[in-house]
Specification:
This protein is α/β, with parallel strands linked by helices and 405 residues long. 24% of the residues lie in helices and 29% in strands. The protein contains eleven helices and 26 strands. A five-stranded parallel β-sheet has the order 3-2-1-7-19. A hairpin with a 4-residue loop joins strand 20 and strand 21. Helix 1 packs across helix 9. The longest helix is centred in the C-terminal third of the chain and has 15 residues. The relative contact order is 0.12.
């Protein structure tokens, strides 16, 4: 028999935890909700850390809600600055680092991720930064003054957005990428070249196929023998899921916290949402962790419904975006290990690339083509199978692919 849910604890006060708490109240849950967050802030969305907060020196932090709105309007108890470090599944108690305990009937693990650290710079003589919290973003913003020498380790989305902000502020920026091109793990080569060229036009330099092996007080040393002058190093080499609580519960969590399409883990009345969740993706054909704003919001809303007995499966294709100079790039689904169809003329600066496996579109990427992407996301989600010739034609109305035949 299912346990009655009166007390819900949300371990993690980021975007996923916050959106789940909102959704619980919106669906009429009247019991207690306690959200436990390690950071000293009310919940906020992380894209601003590498976007708006770096683009303007006077940009202010956007919180999902003010602390008072959580407690007074939604009746959600928020415990900030309180890392949840242990869980007793038999007594159904979550413990924090300062010794407090919180009882739950239902537990949501929204523990997110932490930056993957670079061992070669752990005891560096140069200042080293990661970009995961508000404090990180504000500290980096203070450093990107005209003339500063910034070395960025990692040519992924976060590193490149930071490079964009630094270059626009007049910094001397060098991006160090271990692969032979930018964004190699998720983007086609055409986009890698386009992005690299745009950065170079703003003075950014690149070193490919090399890793950081050491540092001095004014430079980083690379595996190819080069020394890159720098006043600050920003490391953006990915993240790892925060799975300590899941492990305490005996859950498998080597690659993330495994969940079904309803967000349920293998432990009774324990759910997981957001970056730490290892969830099935039809586009990828396997379980993946989806580290995006859209997933942190929409999957969390779905999981909240399931926590209180409403059967809502979540199957949205992954989707994210990045803005770099005059490029708005959006990606949906999975672009890897697929045949690519180009829609539009890349030389025009506005086009899309559609990833096909057989007759099925499993991914799409748009450059300055937001309207195309809005429809391509729907096509992928609906598992529609339009003709390839239609997808290639800029004159084809993508809405037709969703109409019954």
């Amino acid at each position: 028999m299912a346990r009655t849910i009166n007390d819900i604890v949300i371990a993690g006060a980021g975007q996923a935890g916050a959106r789940a708490a909102e959704a619980l109240r919106a669906r009429g849950f009247k019991g207690s909700i306690t959200m436990i967050g390690e950071e000293p802030h009310p919940p906020y969305e992380r894209p601003q850390l590498s976007k708006s907060l770096l683009q303007s020196s006077d940009a202010t932090v956007a919180y999902i809600k003010k602390a008072a709105n959580w407690t007074e309007t939604l009746d959600v108890r928020i415990e900030t600055g309180a890392a949840a470090i242990d869980c007793d599944p038999d007594r159904r108690i979550v413990s924090t680092a300062d010794g407090r305990t919180f009882h739950f009937d239902g537990l949501l693990l929204a523990t997110g991720t932490r930056p993957r650290r670079l061992a070669a710079l752990e005891d560096a003589h140069i200042e080293v930064q990661y970009l995961r919290s508000l404090e990180d973003a504000l500290q980096f913003r203070r450093h990107i003054q005209a003339g500063s020498r910034i070395a960025i380790v990692g040519g992924g989305v976060i590193g490149l957005e930071a490079a964009c902000a630094a270059a626009r502020n007049g910094c001397h920026v060098t991006v160090i990428e271990s692969e032979e091109r930018l964004l190699a793990r998720a983007f086609p080569g055409l986009i890698s070249r386009l992005v690299a060229d745009r950065h170079r036009s703003h003075g950014v330099e690149f070193v490919f196929g090399a890793t950081v092996i050491g540092s001095t007080s004014a430079s980083v040393g690379l595996s190819n023998g080069a020394q890159i002058p720098a006043d600050l190093v920003l490391v953006g080499i990915g993240v790892t899921p925060s799975t300590e609580l899941a492990i305490r519960l005996g859950l498998p969590a080597a690659e993330g916290i495994a969940v079904d399409n309803c967000g349920r883990t293998a432990a009774p009345e324990v759910f997981c949402a957001g970056d730490a969740a290892l969830q099935w993706s039809r586009c990828h054909g396997r379980a993946v962790r989806v580290e995006t704003w859209a997933n942190a919001q929409n999957q969390a809303i779905s999981v909240a419904a399931n926590m209180i007995g409403d059967a809502v499966e979540y199957n949205d294709p992954p989707w994210f975006w990045t803005d770099q100079y005059d490029l708005n790039i959006q990606v949906a689904g999975d672009m890897r290990e697929a045949e690519h169809i180009v829609r539009g003329n890349p030389d025009s600066g506005r086009f899309s690339i559609i990833a096909m496996r057989g007759a099925e579109p499993v991914g799409a990427l748009s450059v300055n083509a937001a309207k195309d992407m809005a429809m391509l996301r729907r096509i992928i989600a609906a598992n529609a199978k339009p003709q390839r010739a239609d997808l290639e034609s800029p004159g084809y109305d993508l809405r037709a692919a969703l109409k019954p035949h």
